[in-house]
Amino acid sequence: MRGWWTATLWMIGCASVPAVPDDPPVVETPPVAVEEATPESDGMVELGLDFRGVELGSVAAQPVLVALHGRGDHPKHFAHLAKRWTRVAHVVVPAATIPHGQGFSWFHIRAAQDDPTLAAAVSEATRRVVQLIHARRPAGHPVVVTGFSQGGMLSFALATRPEKVVDAAVPMGGFLPKGMWPTERPAHATPIFAVHGEADTVIPVTAPQATVAHLQSLDWPVQLHTEPGVGHTISQGMVSVVDEAVRSGVSSP
What is residue 197's DSSP assignment? Predict the structure, then answer.
């Protein structure tokens, strides 16, 4: 990734209601909106490859932002955060594959960072999202991924695969299981900007700290931004830095 990402990089859980501030002023012409709700689909549309979810933004070829919700969350809810990027990207918010309460889960495993069963579960969920991203990638345009909690774990996983899948990743409240830690930096090394609450008791901040420290030991373009006093949620402060990272990611060549 070029530009701001290179120069100023700073990173299992339950769904949490994000505190999202108003969208910043923009001067772009609003895009043509994609239909995002029908009574038959409970607010979701078919995305292909057996995925359903929410699509927002222009139908024209442009950067794609894939937004991955957390455990028990629903694309319609997570889209309230993702909709702020519809003027700079076509936003895809897929539903996870496992029904969970009123929402969905990407996997059921809740285990320590070094538990191999967790790595296996995250790896399988990532494999399916990779297929969706390849199917939705527009020629010549970047793909950025962000996500919270389980979605944050998948964001880390997508950015650290041996082959290039995404052009930038912005994980929130997640980490990468140790069984998935890369052993070397590939030539394409996807930039990662991760954010995490320092008071998180669901996924302690030590988990992303260990992930980022390992990646930095490989000279990976990654840094972790933490928010004091924030638990397992997306605070307004986190949204501000994530917003800048996403906008920089989708605008990079």
Answer: E
Judge whether 122 and 153 are in contact, CB under 8 Å: yes
For the domain 4-12+41-251, what is the CATH superfamily, name and number?
Alpha/Beta hydrolase fold, catalytic domain (3.40.50.1820)
pTM for the structure as a whole: 0.84
Stretch 1-19: mean pLDDT: 40
Angle at 241 between CA 235 and CA 243, to 5 degrees: 95
Paired strand residues for 92: 55, 66
Q: Contact at 8 Å (CB) between 24 and 184?
A: no
Cα separation, 192 vs 189, in Å, equals 9
Say if CB 231 and CB 197 are below 8 A apart.
yes
How far, in Å, CA of 101 to CA of 88, rounded? 32
Q: In angstroms, how far is the first alpha carbon of the chain from the final one?
A: 7
Query: In this structure, are residues 153 and 176 in contact, taking their beta carbons and an 8 Å threshold?
Result: yes
Contact 146, 169 (CB under 8 A): yes
Within 8 A by CB and 6+ apart from 39, the residues are none
Query: What tokens does 91 get?
Result: 């936003």
102: Cβ–Cβ under 8 A, 6 or more apart, which residues?
72, 74
The answer to whether residue 42 scores a pLDDT higher than 60 is yes
Beta strands in the chain (DSSP E): 45-48, 51-56, 64-68, 90-94, 98-100, 103-105, 143-148, 168-172, 192-197, 222-227
| Cα–Cα distance, 246 to 58 (Å, whole number) | 17
Q: pLDDT tens-digit profile of 112-143?
A: 777 899 999 999 999 999 999 999 888 888 99
Nearest to 126 by CA among 91, 190, 191, 177: 177
